[in-house]
Amino acid sequence: MTIIAPSILSADFARLGAEVTAAEQAGADWIHIDVMDGHFVPNLTFGPPVIKAIRSATKLPFDVHLMIERPELSIADYVKAGADRITVHAEATVHLHRTLHQIKEFGLPAGVAINPATPVSVLEPVLDDVDLILIMTVNPGFGGQSFIPYSLDKLRELRVMLQRRGLQDMLVQVDGGVNTETTRAIQEAGANVLVAGSAVFDKADRKAAIAALR
Ligand code: DX5
Ligand code: ZN
């Protein structure tokens, strides 16, 4: 079963609540929320107040992807705003283990993300501390970029590592350049959670768009 998590980064920000509701009606499993701080990534999006404002627009889980420096300083704010799961970047904190456990202490599943140029080996020490691993397949910051092909090798390498550790049930998420051309190879390489921004929100028929990605 593949989980489809449309990213509201590509939604119409002027009608964000309605866009989230539409994604639910179109068959999305999670709502992916890209938080960017203008430091860790070269773009600035939204934070806890906006997440709180759209919380009532859907019953779907809010999958919050923090592309912010020192996420440990604001985990509590995202929990209060309505996050159902939180993913932080390994590159964004010098205290990754502590930050992951901070998320779990709130009772939320914790995810770790790595950028395209970060090796999979970085994940090895925290494999038992996470519920989800996010392999970025574009350099984070913007929607609509092209999938970086060597990401497929990273996914395969991760799958071998998970198998060795008896963690084959891990959620393995992919974010960036997921579309009808790349979805098959991504799933074959081992991803079971697909984030898609432009491939869902830029399409008039979101239901068909989500079905095509599955
Ligand atoms: C990238 C974001 C993604 C982005 C994906 O910085 O983390 O979630 O919205 O956009 P698409 O699917 O258009 O590549
Ligand atoms: Zn994302």
What would a concise description of this structure say?
The chain has 214 residues and is of the alpha/beta class. 31% of the residues lie in helices and 19% in strands. It has one domain: TIM Barrel, CATH 3.20.20.
Quickly give the structural class: alpha/beta
Q: What is the beta-strand fraction?
A: 15-25%
CATH domain topology: TIM Barrel
Tell me the number of structural domains. 1
What is the global morphology? globular
Low-confidence stretches: none
Helices, by number, come to 8
Structural summary, described in words:
The chain has a single domain (3-213), classed as Aldolase class I (TIM Barrel, Alpha-Beta Barrel), CATH 3.20.20. 31% of the residues lie in helices and 19% in strands. It contains 8 helices and 8 strands, in the order βαβαβαβαββαβαβαα. It has helices spanning 16-25, 48-54, 75-81, 96-105, 151-164, 183-188, 198-201, 206-213; strands spanning 3-6, 31-36, 62-67, 85-89, 110-114, 132-136, 171-175, 193-196. The chain has an 8-stranded parallel β-sheet. α3 (75-81) links the parallel β3 (62-67) and β4 (85-89). α2 (48-54) packs parallel to α3. Zinc ion is lined by residues 7, 32, 34, 65, 175, 195.
Topology:
Elements: E1 3-6, H1 16-25, E2 31-36, H2 48-54, E3 62-67, H3 75-81, E4 85-89, H4 96-105, E5 110-114, E6 132-136, H5 151-164, E7 171-175, H6 183-188, E8 193-196, H7 198-201, H8 206-213
Parallel strand pairs: 1-8, 2-3, 3-4, 4-5, 5-6, 6-7, 7-8
Helix pairs in contact: 2-3
The structure holds D-xylitol-5-phosphate (DX5) and zinc ion.
The site of D-xylitol-5-phosphate has 22 residues, from strand 2, strand 8 and helix 7.
Protein name: Ribulose-phosphate 3-epimerase
Enzyme class: isomerase
Family: Belongs to the ribulose-phosphate 3-epimerase family.
